[in-house]
Specification:
By secondary structure, the chain is an alpha/beta fold. The protein has helices spanning 12-24, 35-44, 63-74, 89-97, 110-122; strands spanning 4-8, 28-32, 49-53, 79-84, 102-105.
């Protein structure tokens, strides 16, 4: 049975690339480019894992953390990966406090991201 992924990034090209990559690996993939779109998908679908960018609407935004908080409360079994080119110790700590499973630097090589996703989906919560 295919597992469901939600990819959230304001860059449509990255959503497309990740979507194609994970679809070809056998996953079912939905994508969103904004927080409200992602929240809508989370309330109508079930996802095994969410991959989200930290910043969805500007250089100082942190919608990825808002999404992670929502996921933890609405679907606690869903794993969360946060991608960001702006990781700091503070962001990483806040992400962990919100239940983010993994914070990864952006860009992330696709094979490495695939390994992380596979490991998270097979690990016990």
């Amino acid at each position: 049975m295919a597992q469901n992924l939600l990819i959230v990034d304001d860059e449509s090209s990255l959503c497309w690339v990740l979507g194609q990559f994970f679809t070809s690996a056998g996953y079912r993939v939905d994508s969103a480019r904004a927080l409200d779109e992602a929240l809508g998908l989370m309330t109508t679908g079930r996802y095994d894992l969410v991959i989200s960018d930290l910043r969805l609407s500007g250089t100082q935004s942190e919608e990825g953390l808002l999404l992670a908080d929502f996921v933890r409360r609405f679907a606690p079994e869903t794993r969360v990966v946060l991608l960001t080119a702006f990781a700091t110790q503070e962001i990483t700590e806040r992400a962990r406090e919100l239940g983010v499973d993994l914070v990864l630097p952006k860009p992330q090589p696709l094979p490495a991201l695939a390994r992380h996703v596979s490991q998270l989906l097979t690990a016990a919560r």
